[in-house]
Amino acid sequence: MATIRLTASQAMVRYLSVQMNEDGVPFLAGIWAIFGHGNVAGLGEALHAIGDDFPTWRGHNEQAIAHAAIAYGKANNRRRAMAVTTSIGPGATNMVTAAALAHVNRLPLLLIPGDVFANRAPDPVLQQVESFDDGTISANDCFKPVSKYFDRITRPEQLLTALPRAFATMTDPADCGPVTLAFCQDVQTEAYDWPEEFFEPKVWGLRRQRPDARELEAAIEAIKSAKNPLIIAGGGVLYSGACDVLLAFAEKHQIPVCETQAGKSSMPWDHPLNLGSVGVTGASSANAIAEKSDLIIGIGTRFQDFTTGSWTLFKNPDCRILALNVTSFDSHKANALPLVCDARTGLEELTATLGNHKAPAPDASLKTDWMASVDAATSAPSGNDLSSDAQVIGAVQRSMDDDAILVSASGGLPGELHKLWKAAKPNGYHMDYGYSCMGYEIAGAVGVKMAHPNREVVVMLGDGSYMMMNSELATSVMLGTKIICIILDNRGFGCINRLQMATGGENFNNLLDDARHVETSNIDFAAHAASMGAASEKVNSIEELEEAMKRACASEISYAIVIDTDPLITTEAGGHWWDVAVPEVSTRPQVNAARADYENHLKEKK
Fold it and tell me: Do residues 361 and 447 share a domain?
């Protein structure tokens, strides 16, 4: 057997560079790296040597570059991904939040944090977290609960098994998620005689699981007997490449469709059978059908509480749930009828067996009325009052073409965007609302732009998220990955302030003016964005915003637009109750009233 002598780092990098997807391109589009003493000498030298064959990207914050990598994988519908490497210690633990985000959203991500010395000679090494009762533990053990596969590389030859397992996890539709390979820093530099065949290119294909015959038969019976079926399209529709098949299925069998946050853009917003968003942040059209439906057909959704209204949305006592999902875990939730299979394959086999079966046509006025509510909420205001989030959304929407991609993640914007954004094409709506991670937005937009360099990428975020993580705006300028940032300044955490008020609480510690302070906060976000190299401006009205959007779209570099917004206004149309526990005992009558209302809603749970 022919061998080649390489360090463990050189072997890892060479292996990573030749793992391909079905399209004949590398599955990993390179690696984000922030070097430190735990990875610069080993992996750093290997990455420099391989050059453009496996490109290295530099960012400013470990969590942020992992967000960019995650967004790249999501924007590519899990067909491609990125790796991230950091030093031992704080560089590594900065990525734990990002790992959780990838885990919750079932997205591919390869994390390679540096680790302690396997030989323990310099123990404790700088930044080492010591366990008093377990000598095998390091800070990287924090990744175990938020990784789909975890391994610690303490000998070079362990890569022969660890690396194939890592790719098997990232490319498995059912088990897809983050992989952590904690790489001991001394092992990174150790040499080994590797089999040359280990570095031959390998293609990782998309496995399309077919449905079980008995489950398929039960699903067919359920659909044929349903009087008011409703499809809930989740992210699995996009990841499976099933958008066209879903559209054909809905049209042939006359079944209305609504979308989760992850599934939004599965169908064009203006299709008559697309009733819009569902659940807590749902459209009145979709929620009205969901409330009376006797069969909910979930396709590629994990039935998050925002989708189900904390399981109070489906009010028909005869309602059953049919869960078509590639994972058995999701298919068996809520005592559902399971249909464990790939979304595209499952829909194809369902429609082949259903023949010409059609469900009763949905009430077309439901969508007409809802779109009238959307247009009213997003129309430009008159006067000089502070704009609402919805009015900002309308201005941005009117300024973008159908190819644009909208990115967001946290605060009040996901709820407003889920209701109001009109996604015309697949992947035109990119939202993290599985983990709803503040700080994902700008970094995520960079990853999306890297995945779709020819589409305009606009990211909307509040001042709170901007303050939490804005550094990758500088990275976007440095890399030439132009994004448009719309920063809505409502002076604090407006979404949680509204939730605080809705549960009977007093305004406290959310808006800047309600937090403990000596000086009133006064942040010039436009100047801050400009200091990182972006073009920027602040506007004072919706009309000015629309003019600024023209300049932003024409710009060749990243562009930030700041606008002050009202922290209290949200779109009243649509929506549904969400289970947020209220204290049973309080001295405040507002809290006691909120508790009584909360208990009434609990009675609606299935």
Answer: no
| Sheet containing strand 178-184, strands side by side | 56-57, 28-33, 81-86, 109-115, 178-184, 149-153
pLDDT at 605: 72
SS (H, E, C) 169-226: HHCCCCCCCEEEEEEEHHHHCCEEEEEHHHHCCEECCCCCCCCCHHHHHHHHHHHHHC
**φ/ψ of residue 56, rounded to 5:** -105, 130
Beta bridge pairs of residue 324 = 299, 339
Residues 556 and 423 in one domain: yes
Task: Tell me the β-bridge partners of 194.
Answer: 4
| Alpha-carbon gap, residue 411 to 464, rounded angstroms | 8
Amino acid at 391: Q
Tell whether 341 and 405 lie within a shared domain.
Answer: no
| CA-based nearest residue to 434, from 85, 97, 68, 179 | 97
Q: Do 361 and 386 share a domain, yes or no?
A: no
E strands in 36-159: 56-57, 81-86, 109-115, 149-153
Check whether residue 26 and residue 165 sit in a common domain: yes
Q: Token digits for 150?
A: 């975890």
Edge-to-edge order in the sheet of strand 257-259: 274-277, 257-259, 229-233, 295-299, 320-325, 337-340
Distance, first Cα to last Cα, the chain: 62
CB 339 within 8 A of CB 216: yes
Are the C-beta atoms of 37 and 85 separated by less than 8 Å?
no
* CA dist., res. 68 & res. 286, Å (int): 32
- pLDDT one-digit tens code per residue, 255-296: 999 999 999 999 999 999 999 999 999 999 999 999 999 999
The tokens of 512 are what? Answer: 């800047």
Q: Other C-beta atoms within 10 Å of 511: how many?
A: 20
Length of the chain: 606
User: 310 and 400 in one domain?
Assistant: no
The answer as to whether 275 is a domain residue is: yes
Residue 509 belongs to what domain range?
381-564
CATH number for the domain spanning 153: value is 3.40.50.970
pLDDT of residue 606: 55
Residue 530: inside a domain, yes or no? yes
Query: Cα(36)–Cα(182) distance, rounded to whole angstroms?
Result: 14
Question: What sections of 294-402 are H helices per DSSP?
Answer: 305-308, 328-331, 343-354, 364-378, 389-399
β-strand pairing of 320-325 with 337-340: parallel
Q: Please compute Rg for the chain using Cα positions.
A: 25
Q: Which residues of the chain have pLDDT under 70?
A: 382-384, 606
On whether residue 512 sits in a domain, the answer given is: yes
Q: How many domains does the chain have?
A: 3
Alpha helical stretches, state H, 194-279: 213-225, 235-240, 243-253
Type of residue found at 468: M
Residue 586 falls within a domain, yes or no? Answer: no
